[in-house]
Amino acid sequence: MIKILYLSANPANTQPLELIKECDKIEEELKFAAGKDKFNFKQHHDISLNELRKQILLHNPQIIHFSGHGSEESELIFKGKSGEIQTVPQAALSKFFEIL
């Protein structure tokens, strides 16, 4: 079974994105894919960096799809503890995935 984890973040102070619509489209396409029984698709929205860690440890996916915003410095943007924007540099995310 191939576990796919779709994660999204669209903090309040960012331009609204249609992330749930995007996720639904991916899930719909997987239902009609060849070998569809080989996929286990999970989704979690409005994530913080801490929630990212929890969801990855909980589901142990082979594929992670993140949808959201990025900064001009190529950082991913997550929801902070109080709903504010929290940016995460590429190097930090790379190290995070290396550890996991």
Walk me through what this model shows:
The two termini are 20 Å apart. By secondary structure, the chain is an alpha/beta fold. Strands 2-1-3 form a three-stranded parallel sheet, with helices on both faces. Strands 4-5-6 form a three-stranded antiparallel sheet. The protein has helices spanning 19-31, 49-59, 90-99; strands at 2-8, 39-44, 63-67, 69-70, 76-79, 85-88. Helices cover 34% and strands 28% of the residues. The longest helix is centred in the N-terminal third of the chain and has 13 residues, at 19-31. The chain is built from three helices and six strands, in the order βαβαββββα.
What keyword list fits this structure?
3-stranded parallel beta sheet; 6 strands; 3 helices; alpha/beta; 34% helix; 28% strand; globular; 3-stranded antiparallel beta sheet
Summarize the structure.
By secondary structure, this protein is an alpha/beta fold. Helices cover 34% and strands 28% of the residues.
Give the topology.
Elements: E1 2-8, H1 19-31, E2 39-44, H2 49-59, E3 63-67, E4 69-70, E5 76-79, E6 85-88, H3 90-99
Parallel strand pairs: 1-2, 1-3
Antiparallel strand pairs: 4-5, 5-6
What level of helicity do the residues show?
Answer: 25-40%
Could you say which structural class the secondary elements and strand pairing correspond to? alpha/beta
Uncertain stretches = none
Count of runs of 4 or more consecutive helical residues: 3
Number of strands: 6
